[in-house]
Amino acid sequence: MIRRLLLFASGLRWIRLIITRYTATRAFAWRFIAGESATTALHAVRNLQKRNISATLDLLGESVHDADEAHASTTQYLALLDNIRRSGAPSHISLKLTQLGLDVDEQRCRDNLELILKRAAEQDTFVRFDMEGSAYTQRTLDLYRSLRPCYDNCGVVIQSYLYRSEQDVEDLIALGARVRLCKGAYLEPPDIAFQRKGDVDATYARLMKRLLSEGAYPAIATHDPQMIAQAQAFVRERDIPNSAWEFQMLYGIRRDMQERLAAEGYNVRCYIPFGAEWYPYAMRRLAERPANVMFLIRNVLRERRPRRMPPPTNDH
Questions:
Q1: Is 189 inside a domain boundary?
Q2: Which of 101, 205, 233, 313 has the fewest CB atoms below 10 angstroms from its CB?
Q3: Own/partner long-range contacts of 33-37 (Cβ < 8 Å, ≥24 apart)
């Protein structure tokens, strides 16, 4: 129930205006977000590079409903690609199609996306289309399929909690698409998505093995130790080289595991979000671990508590 409430709250602007006022909220968010600027994000990339961990940078922002905002996001992504090239940072980029105007005009979104894909291709940089809520699944896959013949430097995300994902994975394998597999972090109804963790995990394991055996350089995005162990056992049994796939994990989550896997010779890529539009992303991370809610509430209440006045001094 707490998770559902947090995911619901992630989309409410009035709650955002209240919650983001507090220093405690920002302090929590900065555990998972590399600041608000490309400079801080690239600094995080370089720190990870020292540990043999590569990155994908995500400029936070979604559900844009204005053409000017979509254009601004596109311009920021083009600048980010230039910054990546100049810095030599080992980083891909990840983006959301609603950030580029999918809800404004699909052709405009396509035009913005092509500008980014062209610049990325010139710089030999890979672009991942992040998957959003289920209302965008088909539209995202359709746009990906239409662009891929012209741009092979892009991939897409599949969420294992959707019933449709098994067929989507088979279709994408046939297409030769590069897929990042995750469990899914949006609030979805029972008629289209598994509600029990066990069902989500079982589907994830099946899709993971299909992608590892038949996919094109799949990204196994998980922090679940059992899933990680299953992936390791499967590639050993099938003699699949580590160079044929990678683990992906989120910035600020299980850093010890990321470093251990990289030290063991696995390809590890860290998903690094940054930017001013951090609230929905932070709420989704909070929903994944509701135990953090009390930690955040205690710190917000402490911040609101009026400071005690010093005792009066006897100056007379």
A1: yes
A2: 313
A3: 33/60, 33/251, 33/252, 33/273, 33/274, 33/275, 33/278, 33/281, 33/282, 34/251, 34/272, 34/273, 34/274, 35/274, 36/274, 36/275, 36/276, 36/278, 37/274
